[in-house]
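Supplementary Text 2. Reproducibility record for the structural model of the 96-residue chain.

All settings were left at their defaults, and a single model was retained for analysis rather than an ensemble. We include the record here because the model underlies the residue-level annotations in Supplementary Table 4.
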Amino acid sequence: MELLLFEFIQKIKDREIDLYNECGIQFELALFLRSIARLKDFKIDLERPIGHFGIKKTVEIPKKEIDLCVYNFHTKEKYGIEIKFSNNGQVPLQMF
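Retained model, structure tokens:
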């Protein structure tokens, strides 16, 4: 999965994908991953509740959803991808 993310980032750097907000990144990444033949048995969801990963919302974990979820029902392999989009050089103050 890590290599696929680097490939996606390279497409952004090469201006093959034009982005201007976090929602666009989520959508474009989902489309990119769905186009990968070796991921044909994986399901890709946007804004999947954190309970899918066995995580409960707490004070330490305030998130309700994971931005992008990639999983395979047969192998039980799961990936959660949280995306942060920086506008004008701003950096999120709190992340987990």
